[in-house]
Amino acid sequence: MSPDSELELAKIAGQESVLIFDSFDQQTALELGLLAREVAASKGQAVVIDIRRNDDCLFFYAMPGTTNANADWARRKRNLVNLAQKSSYAIQLEAESGFDIIGAMGLNPRDFVPAGGCFPIRVSGAGMIGTATISGLPSREDHKLITDCIAALLQIELGEVAF
Fold this sequence. Notes:
globular; five-stranded mixed sheet; alpha+beta; Beta-Lactamase; 6 helices
């Protein structure tokens, strides 16, 4: 594994350890989704935003300029995060370093993809209860957009673990 990948994985682990909600409901999902839409629009980015609690869709928005393919990528990323219980960007970095989770687990690549942009939603005392997914940008940028928005919503300064 390259030193850059090791550093990125350490940052992602740090993000996953601090980006934890006290509670997460429909209102929280709405606030997160609208914030992600606002940030993406302010940068001229076109993304799909998909926020789920378990399999329940709490927020979905496909910005102008996205296609059905972006929504499908979001689904495939989400499936992998639900299975592995960690960020899809971390899974992608591990795959690039030689661990093929798709092959190792016999997963259908039509339904699972190791690509950044899906982040586990964790609630204190409950663990992972859902996912927040961005699709439409390069993997690292998808990941950065959603983690920056979660951090802003939680009013957490990411500091050393920020991208």
